[in-house]
Design goal:
7 strands, alpha+beta, single chain, 40% strand, 32% helix
Length: 187
């Protein structure tokens, strides 16, 4: 089943500030919904493990996200392959960044994936709604993380990966422990 999702959102940072942090695995781990682990084995390649809690697609998923094309502060294109208990996805995505005000950008996104397995049998546009919801959650998390990072640095200091707050290890461990407890309780 082929699926396309697209849209746009506002981010409280300039395209340059977004570009300075968007490829940092620690930052990405804060903004990808359900991200449990992310590693960067090579430049422009990320291995991601997710736990999705949306009822119809619950489970553990793993995948590889690759950056295929970059135009600094303007556009990035990539591919994604992944699989989990309910199926496999293989697709492409693109994000464009446009300045819209002094401290804000417009992000335009498009995702085109081919879904196979039990997930592909979900009808009525349900998977498109799930995908759209996940992308919007990611944009919301991205906006909160980047505006929080900007608030944590001195005014006028450029936002870079070395000025970003690092994920709280205790919070990550607690979240993982909590997820295990919830799964056991549900079994």
């Amino acid at each position: 089943m082929e699926m396309e999702v697209g849209g746009e959102g506002a981010i409280g940072a300039s395209p340059e500030e977004i570009w300075n942090v968007i490829f940092d695995p620690a930052f990405m781990s804060q903004v990808i919904p359900g991200c449990k682990d992310i590693a960067q084995p090579a430049e422009d390649e990320y291995r991601i493990k997710l736990v999705l809690g949306i009822p119809a697609v619950q489970g553990n998923y793993s995948g590889i996200l690759r950056i295929l094309e970059k135009n600094p502060c303007d556009m990035v294109k990539g591919s994604i392959v992944g699989q989990g208990g309910l199926g496999k996805i293989d697709g492409a995505w693109e994000m464009q960044f446009q300045k819209s005000g002094d401290e804000e950008s417009r992000v335009i996104y498009a995702v085109n994936v081919d879904i196979s397995g039990p997930m592909a049998s979900m009808v009525g546009g349900f998977m498109e709604q799930v995908a759209d919801s996940l992308v919007k959650q990611g944009l919301d998390s991205f906006n909160k993380a980047i505006t929080g990072a900007k608030a944590a640095v001195a005014p006028g200091t450029p936002l870079k990966t070395d000025t970003l707050p690092r994920p709280n290890l205790i919070k990550m461990i607690f979240r993982s422990f909590w997820d295990v407890l919830i799964k056991r309780k549900g079994s």
